[in-house]
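Reopening closed ticket. The problem is back. First fold of the pair:
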Amino acid sequence: MKAILIEKPDDAPKGPQTVREGQITTADLPEGEVLVDVAYTTLNYKDALAITGASPVVRSFPMVPGIDFAGVVRESADPAWKPGDKVILNGWGVGEKHWGGLAEQARVKGDWLVPLPEGLSARQAMAIGTAGYTAMLCVMALERHGITPASGEIVVTGAAGGVGSVAVALLAKAGYNVAAVTGRASEAEFLKGLGAASIVDRAELTEPGRPLGKERWAAGIDVAGSHVLANVIAQTKYRGVVAACGLAAGMDLPSSVAPFILRGVTLAGVDSVMCPIEDRREAWSRLAKELDLAKLEALMTELPFDQVIETAPKFLKGEVRGRVVVPVAPDLA
């Protein structure tokens, strides 16, 4: 069966990696209680880092990337799952330490799976994918800290990307006033179509800023880190909340304690990889009910399997809009 393979020669473990579309067998797959036939997978920012080698995402070689997938259980030694069950996987180190979804089959631990929610197809689930699931976790984090539509404007950075676009759509449908940050002026109409009330030029947030700026937003969802996150925090209103889930602009945070001790701002970290199963199930259940599935098509681009490797670098250049869905065996869905 076909798979994307990231490899390094055994005699040069510190040398450059290679990436190719190759063939594997079921016997090659790593250990796990559940064998899944993959119907759809996706191409995410983290997958792009793994495929390009731009960041040391991959922990062992050879590796099949793909941090999420939706498919059908073929075999199961876990009593929680039986053949024919439709399932989703996000995170758990899949595509980094354990072979992932960019293959026709995946063998994983049963505890890593969640059921495909009623009302969602496998294709729609991957149009949402890890990015959309992370966006919902961010919305849940804001809610748990008391943010409501009445709180005021919510800023979303990287709004044209995978996490950001779903976050804009979710917040807008829930009645929030959303300010969408993008560095691509051409995406303004796309973002307004998702429900953004205003567009913010990313350049306003990328340069070093003051420890405390003018109060602009009641809350924020940030995928960037570095100066972008620091400026969002500095411009968040009294007792506001910022959910941080990404590092597209860098891993550093050149901020100060001022927003936290003078305005009571909360910085809420959001991790989707090792997130507890209860939150995963809640996030996916809510996505099936609360995301405007009609808008999901506008967020999604289908990418043939044989174009995955050549497309990965475009993520790192900020040239990808929304969600990228990769059909593997769509007839299964």
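Second fold of the pair, where the issue appears:
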Amino acid sequence: MRGPLHRYRALVAAGALEPDPAQERAAERLQALEDALARARRFRLFAGPQPAPRGVYLWGEVGRGKSLLMDIFFNNSAARAKRRVHFHEFMAETHERIARFRALDARKRKRAPGTNPKSIDDPMPPVAFEITDETKLLCLDEFQVRDIADAMILGRLFDALFARGLVVVATSNRPPDELYWDGINRQLFLPFIDMLKSRLDVLELEAARDYRLARLTGAPVYYRPLGPDADEAMDDAWAQLICGAREREEKLYVQGRMLIIPRVARDAARFHFRDLCQKPLGAADYLAIARRYGAIFIDRIPRMSPDMRDAARRFINLIDALYDTRTKLVCSADGEPADLYPAGDGAVDFGRTVSRLLEMRSADYLGAERTPKAANA
């Protein structure tokens, strides 16, 4: 047998994952979806289009393994046109697609694929056509709705996507009924929740423990001083967190620019200090990284002399973004936080960074729920 359940059990057997009945039940449901997708592909060859299988909405508390299970499903699905993407990245792309459609003149809009000729000003049919032309299986990680601009288009967007046969697997920290809780005009959002529950099986992942917190608190997250021992400890911590996942390179688009994220696995990313703070990156770049990844590894943070004030300023901005979004940090450094930039332009501001670095090592911070929509967004 191949597929997500086989892979999950293989990881447990190899000791990369701890046995957990709730995770196994979720893997079994994802295997059922993979089997349904395979049957739909076979039937399509002989009997034409078939109704799309029901998707899965997997929710639960932080660190229970939702993103891990989605990765296992995605990496071991035979679906050809599939995509795994963070929910906020998907919505940002959707807003860009809508803006591009609206920028077309009326004649071009009328000819756009998927356009309803009776309503050429409605961007949803052509946007849904674009998305489903590229993707038949969409895996959305960290599904959470806080932005009114997202809330007001989700119903119409997903109505058009489901009508075109899109299959969705989503992870979230909240059940569907709590999405956009206390949001402006939430009553207009409620039909989307009903649609979501009618198209996706809602499954709570009641895993026995917070595995990400256990992996992060089971060992230090701040290694000093720099050297082979710290490098080895970082490698061990990274291997523990990603649980055997395949690493990949990923691209983020920030204000029209492309950032290359060199090492990504699960919802974690790993960088060398020089790639984050000794290159011309700004606050918007750091916030995009913090929103996208639940854990950031930074190798070899040096002691910064006064002539490294630009790198120190970037490091301040980076830590602010990670702290505001409650992104977890694992790093190696050439000393305690207070020793990293003791003098130079901005050293007073660096005091805030010292305080935050100390707090980010605490169990309370490591156990805090992520807030990808930071207050300063």
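Update: turned out to be a display glitch only; the data is intact. The chain is about 45% helix and 15% strand. The radius of gyration is 22 Å. Please close again.
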